[in-house]
Write a structure and sequence with these properties.
It is built from 11 helices and 21 strands. The protein is an alpha/beta fold and 396 residues long. Bound molecules: flavin-adenine dinucleotide (FAD) and 3,4-dihydroxybenzoic acid (DHB). Flavin-adenine dinucleotide (FAD) is lined by residues 13-19, 36-39, 44, 49-50, 107, 129, 132, 164-166, 169-170, 273, 292-293, 300, 303-306, 309.
């Protein structure tokens, strides 16, 4: 096999939101990088995931010059609905947080915008690579190795490597196990998510607690709805033909006596996502820095995963810039700086998840405690403010 040596400043593993945004933020600072990705460009641009951006994430994308389509097509939301016991209540983020909002703009669109921007500016992204390896991490010249589709093996000497390769990536596994503290929890349920060609039946997201399990009505555009149902953790998608999904969504989201109905339409994407909390610390080993899902996973109920990936790389870009100029202090603080926000979001996501989902086999005490908490949220400005400031994103 032919091997081609190479050189870059920062080797980036993974072309998800974390890796692509890091590459862009580094380029703005005049730092060169190479991004490697096991999937094809088309796959990365089509993979359906998150949809809600915090205030701070939108600001960051705007400041980085990445928001022209986001500003045209993103949908600003000033709150959410909480539904339980047959009632639907609005939590008004603008009023509770002094004007803060969230923006509905799909992760797939952010990934498309980032890939276009990087390629238009001469950025290097190698798609469909195999056998990614990172090595010599405890030296000042770590190496990123990968094979491109025509069979040539690349060995790129870097000043630092960013592991942005998601939960199943290879980078985290290169940190000696004895140095890592892994804290994790699996939940006894999963989300079945659909995208449907039908105008949303709501102006803002509905998070619904129901005896059959959680349901969420989200959206992507004025003509596309995104909906989720709590299902069994090992649920097979074959058990859920489209009509069964609509019937169950209708049951869990219905508001008896209100006249509200759930509009149905053709389903064009369907998937099941497991629910997990996972934090791996520290987020650095030598010249390897982890960011996004490579270092932490939250259950999706608080819409935090994508926002955490964005805030990690917003901290990492200036840290690497300083490190490459011979000032290691900011890079030394990278992991601790990120982990404070990661743990806040881990707590919020756990709290939203356990308040809204039905735990299989749980007694009536659990359901009553959830309902008591939900009632408190709509009765107490203090409680609602806590939800609102966490959902829209705490300043770090
Ligand atoms: P990723 O987006 O996972 O990107 C990592 C990239 O690295 C991938 O493109 C992968 O192919 C690549 N890669 C992996 N291994 C290698 C390798 N060896 N070499 C090269 N490249 C590699 N969050 C929410 O807030 N709301 C949601 O509704 C929601 N839904 C989700 C549904 C699913 C199925 C999943 C998996 C996640 C979901 N998330 C959601 C979480 C959110 O999408 C993630 O937090 C976000 O994608 C993190 O971005 P990232 O760049 O860190 O990781
Ligand atoms: C979406 C996903 C979430 O996890 C969430 O809490 C809200 C919205 C979405 O995909 O639109």
């Amino acid at each position: 096999m032919r091997t081609q040596p190479g050189r870059t400043q920062v080797g980036i593993v993974g072309a998800g939101p974390a890796g692509l945004l890091l590459s862009h933020l580094l380029a703005l600072r005049g730092i060169e990088s190479v991004v490697v990705e096991i999937r094809s460009r088309a796959y990365c641009e089509a993979r359906q995931r998150a949809g809600v951006l915090e205030d701070g994430s939108v600001r960051l994308l705007r400041e980085a010059g990445l928001a022209s389509r986001l500003d045209r097509e993103g949908l600003e939301h000033g709150g959410i609905y909480l539904q339980f016991a047959g009632e639907r209540h609005h939590i008004d983020f603008r009023k509770l947080t002094g004007g803060r909002t969230v923006t509905v703009y799909a992760q797939t669109e952010i990934v498309k915008d980032l890939i276009n921007e990087r390629l238009a500016r001469g950025g290097e992204i190698a798609f469909e690579v195999t056998d990614t390896e990172v090595d010599r991490l405890d030296s000042e010249r770590p190496v990123l190795c990968y094979t491109i589709p025509d069979g040539i093996r690349h060995e790129v000497v870097c000043d630092a490597i960013a592991g942005c390769d998601g939960f199943h990536g290879v980078c985290r596994q290169r940190i000696p196990a004895g140095l890592l503290r892994i804290t994790e929890r699996d939940y006894p349920y999963a989300w079945l998510g659909i995208l449907a060609d039908v105008p949303p039946s709501t102006d803002e997201l509905i998070y619904a607690h129901h005896p059959n399990g959680f349901a969420l009505h989200s959206l992507r555009s004025p003509t596309t709805s995104r909906l989720y149902l709590q299902v069994e953790p090992d649920e097979s998608i074959e058990n859920w033909p489209d009509q069964r999904i609509w019937d169950e969504l209708g049951r869990r989201l219905e508001l008896p006596g209100s006249g509200w109905t759930l509009k149905q339409g053709p389903v064009f994407d369907k998937s099941v996502t497991p629910m997990r909390s996972f934090v791996s610390a520290p987020m650095r080993y030598g010249r390897l820095f982890l960011a996004g899902d490579a270092a932490h996973i939250v259950p999706p109920t608080g819409a935090k995963g994508l926002n955490l990936a964005i805030s990690d790389v917003a901290v990492l870009a200036p840290a690497l810039d300083a490190l490459l100029r011979g000032e290691p202090g900011v890079a030394d603080a990278y992991s601790d700086n990120c982990l404070r926000r990661v743990w806040r979001s881990t707590h919020f996501s756990w709290w939203m998840t356990t308040m809204l989902h039905r735990t299989p086999g749980a007694d009536d005490m659990e359901a009553q405690l959830q309902l008591a908490q939900l009632r408190y949220l709509i009765q107490s400005t203090a409680a609602a403010t806590s939800l609102a400031e966490n959902y829209t994103g705490l300043r770090s």
